[in-house]
Structures are given as C-alpha cells and as structure tokens.
Amino acid sequence: MSGVAASFDQATGILKLLCETKWTKAEMQRRFFARWGLLRDIAVALDDPQLSEEQVRAMHPLFYKKKTAKTFSDLLADCRQSRVNPHFNEENFPLEPVAPDEADWEVYEHHFEETVTGEEAFRRLEEMGYRLCGPRRAMEFIAAHPDLQLDRSVIVTARWLDSDGGWCAPIFYRHDGRRGLNLDCLGDDDFGSGCGWLVLHKRAA
Questions:
Q1: Architecture of the 69-202 domain
Q2: Max alpha carbon distance in the chain (Å)?
Q3: Which end of the chain is more exposed for a tag (fewer CB within 10 A), N or C?
C-alpha cells in the first residue's frame, strides 16, 4: 500500500470514529475543529518518549476521574524510587479523597529564601494561603516530573506522628545519583532554601 493510500485510509478511519460519536455539526465544530491545536499538542505529548500516556492523562484531573482510582502501591510504583522508607505506606499516609474543587488547585513547589525548621515551614505555608499537599497528588506530581528530585530535595506537606512522638514528612531526594524517598523529622531537622515544598496553589482565574 502506498503512503498516499495509507494516509487516506487513516483519515477515513478518523472520520469514521467521529461519526460514531453522533455529535451534531455544531458539536463537531466546537469539540474537534475549534480545538485542533490542542488536540495536536496532546498528540505530540503522547509521542514524547519521556512521557507515558498515564503521565499525560495525569496532567488534567478530568482524565484521572474517568479511570479507576489508583492504589497507594500503584502511585508509588509510578514514582520509580530506588529506595523507599518502609514507614511511607498507606496506613501512615492514607490517600486524600478527591476534593470537589480539586481542579481549581494545582500542585506547586514553594521555596523559602532562608533555612527553616519543618514545623515553621508548615505553619508559614498555611499562613500564605496554600493548602497542604496530600500523598496522592504529591506522588502524581513526582511521577510526572521524574527528574525533579535529582536536582533538589522535594518535601511533601503531609505529616505522620512516629512512635517517638515526632512529626515526620516524606522527602523525595537524590541518593547516589538515583531517586529515593525518606521521612524527615520536622522538629529536629532544618531545611535550606534549596529544598522544595509541595503545596496546593489556587489556579489563576
């Protein structure tokens, strides 16, 4: 089959799929032709070898809601960590439910200009109007940005009270050139300006 014939068959197949949607002419214009640029961008993103289809879908919460919710183990596996603190589990860090206004809040990495303690960081972040970022959205973010922690440590603003009565938070970090996930004590450790804190930031209107 020639290239022209193959292209024609592919175009015919696309038209057939569009016909199966049973959209009206107005819906066809609004959903497909008016958004051709966006559809093309999605196609380009899917062709990027560094992005999986799951990561592309995770960029928009509507896609995530249409699928069966991932388990804690699924999300952690998507993060591809070479080592994980055994206390980072669903019992200690239960997945947060999907909030009614979740689409209005995006994961954001905040940096302090000075060194702070963990407890001070949590207090100041909430005073700034951020929402704390739960383990579900944090792991989705790390999976979509796999090289982020190779540049700097990234702290999740979710807390767990250990057996000694100290509050700990998950931290994605670099270990021997590989990715690792540990728990840091918020009361004892200081965190420099190079650390990133994952919070939820209100999207611009």
A1: Roll (3.10)
A2: 71
A3: C
